[in-house]
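--- STAGE predict ---
source: upstream dedup step, 1 unique chain passed
mode: sequence only
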Amino acid sequence: MGYYETHRDAIDYFREEYDFLSNFYPTKVVFDGITYYNSEAAYQAQKCLHPEDRLLFALLSSDEAKRFGQKVERRPDWDDVKCGIMEQIVYAKFTQNPTLAQALLDTGEKPLKEGNHWKDLYWGVDLKSGEGENHLGKILMALRDDFRKNGIPVTAFSHNSLTGPFSGMWIDDRDITLSECECVVNATDEKLLGSRGVDSAIYRAAGSKLREECATLGGCRVGEAKLTDGYRLKAKFIIHTVGPKYPSENCRENLAKCYTATLDLAKKYGIRSIVFPSISTGKFSYPRKEACKIAVKSVHTWLKENRDYDMKVVFSCVDPKIYELIYTELNSK
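--- STAGE serialize ---
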C-alpha cells in the first residue's frame, strides 16, 4: 500500500504523488545565471567559496550534488545565509515551472513537512518522532500562501531544449508533462495507479479525470500499452505502458515490447508525434545504460519497419545522465 493511499492530515513525506515538493525532484532550475537539473544541485552549489566552482554542479543529479557538496571548500557565512538561499531556489523552481506551482497550490491547507529517516531535523522532521524544525516545509507553505494571494508569476525562462532529428528521433530535457507532442507516454505499474516519478507527475498534471479513466481499463500487463485522453496536458493522448522490474525473467525483451507496443498503438490511432520517458530506469531499477540502448534500438527498428508512416519520436530526459546516454545512442545511429 502506498504511503498516501490512506487519509493523512499532513503531507509529511515528499514522495509518491508529492515528490515534486522535494529538492531532489528532477526539474530544471535557473539560478544566478546557471541552469541546474534539480533544486538540490542549485542549493549545494551555493556553498562554494569560489563562485566559479558552482558550474561543477550544473549537470549533477541530486544524489551526486549532495555528495559533492560535502567536499567543496565552503563559504564562511554559509550557516547564516543558507535558509535565505533555499527560499530563493524554491521560489525559482516553482515560478519557472508553473505546473509545479499549480500542484503546490493544489495541496490546499495541509501542513507540509519533509519527513525523513536520516535525522535531518533542520530542513525536515524525523518520520518516527515528528521532531524537527521543518524549514523547507515552512518555505513551501509561505510560497503557497503567496501564490494563493498574488497568483503564480510568469518568468522569462524557457527550458525548451529540443535537439535533433537523429534518424527520425529527437531528445528533449524538459519535464515530459510540458511536451507539445500529440501523445505522452506514461511509464506506470500494472494497476495504473500513478504512484511515483514520471507516473505521478503525469497523473498530477493531467488531473483527476485521468485516474478515473484508468480505473476502467482493468490494469495493464508488462510490455503492453493502453491509451487514454490527455485531459489537462497539452498532449491530446496518453499511452500507458508497464516496464519490467530489474532483474526479472525476459526483462530485456519486455522492455523492448514497451516501446514497440506503444508505437503500434499510436499508429493505430493516427498519432504522429510521441514523447517517451526512460522506461523502467526509475523505481523498477533497470540499469540506465542498457535501458537506453534498448529504447533507441527498439524505436529505430520500428521507424525503419514503418517507413510509410510519418512519426516524430522524442525522448524526454530531464535526468542529465539519461540525456547523455540517449544522446550517445542517437548519435550512433
